[in-house]
Amino acid sequence: MNLAGKTAVVTGASSGIGAATVRKLRKAGVRVAGGARRLERVEADVPLALDVTDEESSRVFVEAAVEALGGIDILFCNAGLALGRVPFTESTEADETTVLHTNVDGVLRITRLALPHIRDGGHLVFMGSIAGRQAYPHGASYIASKFAVRGFTYALREDLLGRPIRITTVDAGLVETEFSVVRFGGDREKADAVYEGIEPVTPDEVADCVLFALTRPPHVNIDEIVVKALAQSSGARVVRA
Ligand code: NAP
To answer: How far is CA 161 from CA 17, 128, 166, 167, in A?
Structure first.
């Protein structure tokens, strides 16, 4: 399927997988509205400020995107984060709340606000994680949030069945982005150690997965894509050189 002339809304467009997907969509001829808190880093046709944890910000974002694009063919709910890598007994309510508000409430909110504007033939893509399929130690709130994303997309598939809207979740393993820097509160050394001795998947390679799902024929729904580095078998198991 040719994407030229279509429109897309991407959350978390300022960095990593979101930014890479915006680039690839635009290259494919899609007009893209991208949102993030760091507006200055969003390189989209329509760059917009967005905090998915904030109802008003999310409402204004979707309204502005629809106004600029005229309607939505593709929604990529990608904004998300993890905070900390500690046993649950050391987890804090503040971190848990931020993770769940961003990764779960934010996804439901943006989807609910955008759905009335999704055109027939539209496609909803969600950024999940292998953390949403199998637990690993010391990531409870993130794991809970990504299991929730997967559950939500299954439920949405049921509720939208019969409508011409496709739904895909992309569950990635280790991808080298700012994700680990954010997770470790800006500690570059800890973040770099996550990717040490392996060749992780790149943001562009995840974006390729998104575009693969988007470009299938309209009657084909790619429900889920799971993509990991060859050196990673699960969230807990990585072989390092
Ligand atoms: P990243 O480089 O840190 O990008 C995260 C994006 O989310 C940024 O654009 C950030 O923008 C945005 N974001 C965070 N909180 C937000 C909020 N409250 N409102 C709006 N935007 C917000 O990390 P990434 O790896 O590309 O992460 C993208 C998605 O992939 C996330 O859902 C993550 O869970 C998922 N994922 C990542 C990996 C990995 O290993 N990297 C693996 C599997 C899944 P601002 O900070 O500018 O708002």
So the answer is: 28, 21, 9, 10
| Beta carbons within 8 Å of 19's beta carbon, 6+ residues apart | 13, 34, 41, 42, 43, 203
Contact between 167 and 214 under an 8 Å Cβ cutoff? The reply is: no
pLDDT digit string (tens) for 16-51?
A: 999 999 999 999 999 999 999 999 999 999 999 999
Asked if the structure places residue 159 within a domain, the reply is: yes
Q: What is the CATH number of the domain that holds 148?
A: 3.40.50.720
Number of domains in the chain: 1
**Is residue 168 in some structural domain?**
yes
> How far apart are the CA of 162 and the centre of ligand 1, in A?
31
In a domain, 235, yes or no: no
Q: Phi, psi (5° rounding) for residue 74?
A: -135, 130
Active site residue 142: yes
Spatial contact of 232 and 198, defined as CB atoms under 8 Å apart: yes
Give percent of the chain above pLDDT 90: 100
Residue 146: active-site member: yes
Structural domain harbouring 77: 7-227
